[in-house]
Amino acid sequence: MTSLQEVRVDRAAYRHNLETILQRVHPAKVLAVLKANAYGHGAVELAKVADQTDVSYLGVVSLDEAVRLRQAGIRKPIIAWLHLPGTDFAEAARQNITLGLSTADQIEAAAAAGAHTVHLAIDTGLGRNGATRAQWPHFFETAARLQAAGKIDVEGMMSHLSNTSVDDDTDQLQVFDDALQTAADYGIHPRLRHIAATGVALDRPEARYDMVRIGIGGYGLSPDDRTSAELGLTPVMRVSTRVAQIKRVPAGTPASYGYLYRAPRETTFALVPFGYADGLPRQASQGGGVLVGGRVYPVAGRIAMDQFVIDVGDDDVHIGDEAVILGDPQRGEPSATLWADSAGTINYEIVTRIGDRPQRVYVDQQRLDQPRVEEHIGDRHQEQASGE
Ligand SMILES: *Cc1c(COP(=O)(O)O)cnc(C)c1O
């Protein structure tokens, strides 16, 4: 590793996770969610992986994200589901991108622009995008009229759950069924009905309908309190750097801004060059964990923009030693969830916020027998830097 920091993205792990979930939700289809640069993993690279699996659809939020995937040569159907007024839907027509549409105006604009394939988005209770019950008559009437005129094909209907509780999700599923029934009354019969994201997709077969949308699970992370391993998933992202400086310090020596941490006795401070500019939440100061030489050390003091300190005591730690910031707990590496818990957030936010400064390296490493830490470190010759 020549760069200061590395984000290693394991394409084989992504494929493994998608295939695991495909099997688990069968016969429901899978839409792989690749929004927000694939939750920080690299959308084009992972879309290429998903493109070679039995995944049926790729999903992103904006039309721009969708076009970028199409221009990178992705062949599978792609849907984009959040749009501002004035969005150039003709680009969706040109690039063969499906639109998730939330209002009658959007349906009219899509039809006028020649964007043919649409999914109708329903607000079943989350209060975000999608048509509310009061809007359904005009929404479905518009869709039915333009479909009858051959302008659009209502291929799908979608909604999104709040995950507030099982009962609240059940209420939303009921509203989704009502929306489907109402749409049918207008002559609209979507072939792809989808509402479940990873959590509900894994746990509630009745919520799978025709397709489930898989984001976090594909990246090998858990949507809830279970571990990745408990779900049969392998974390795809591994973030590492190297110890940049070592110093022996007397008892009482403070570390970093605000002197939140002071050495309890004579000890060794190691400097880890990774900061909040790289995506670590500053709220995780005094928390989180970094794997160096087989042990995990919490942050000593504040996380700064570019670096933080760990107290390695009398351990045999050297400049240049690898410091793994997050990865697969099955290999002894800190999990994204460990950082999330320290910062009062969720693993989604941890991986999605990993910045652009670390070099992204794409590897194909997943094996059925997970390598242990030592083997893994000895495996570096197997890496292939991405050709992108
Ligand atoms: C992000 C997103 C998903 C994916 O959710 P996960 O919990 O990551 O699987 C699914 N559907 C919609 C509408 C989303 O915005």
Give an overview in words:
By secondary structure, the chain is an alpha/beta fold. It folds into two domains: 11-219, TIM Barrel (Alpha-Beta Barrel); 237-363, Lyase, Ornithine Decarboxylase, Chain A, domain 1. It has helices at residues 11-25, 35-39, 43-51, 63-71, 90-94, 104-112, 136-148, 166-185, 198-203, 336-343, 347-352, 373-377, and strands at residues 5-10, 29-33, 57-60, 78-80, 98-101, 117-121, 153-158, 192-194, 211-214, 237-242, 245-249, 254-255, 261-262, 267-272, 290-292, 295-297, 308-311, 322-326, 359-363. The protein is elongated, with a radius of gyration of 23 Å. Residues 368-388 have low confidence and may be disordered. Bound molecules: pyridoxal-5'-phosphate. Pyridoxal-5'-phosphate is lined by residues 33, 35, 160, 197-198, 213-217, 223.
SS elements, strand count: 19
Tally of distinct domains: 2
Instruction: List all distinct small molecules, including ions and cofactors, that are bound in this structure.
Output: pyridoxal-5'-phosphate
* Structural class by SSE content: alpha/beta
Low-confidence stretches: 368-388
Strand content: 15-25%
What percentage of residues falls in helices of 4 or more residues? Answer: 25-40%
Q: What is the CATH architecture assignment of the largest domain?
A: Alpha-Beta Barrel
Radius of gyration from CA coordinates? 23 Å
Q: What's the shape?
A: elongated
- Euclidean distance between termini CA atoms: 18 Å
Largest sheet: 8 strands, parallel
Number of alpha- plus pi-helical segments: 12
Mean pLDDT: 94
CATH superfamily of the largest domain: Alanine racemase
| Largest sheet strand order | 8-7-6-5-4-3-2-9
In the CATH hierarchy, what is the class of the largest domain?
Answer: Alpha Beta
Q: Might you state the CATH topology name of the largest domain?
A: TIM Barrel
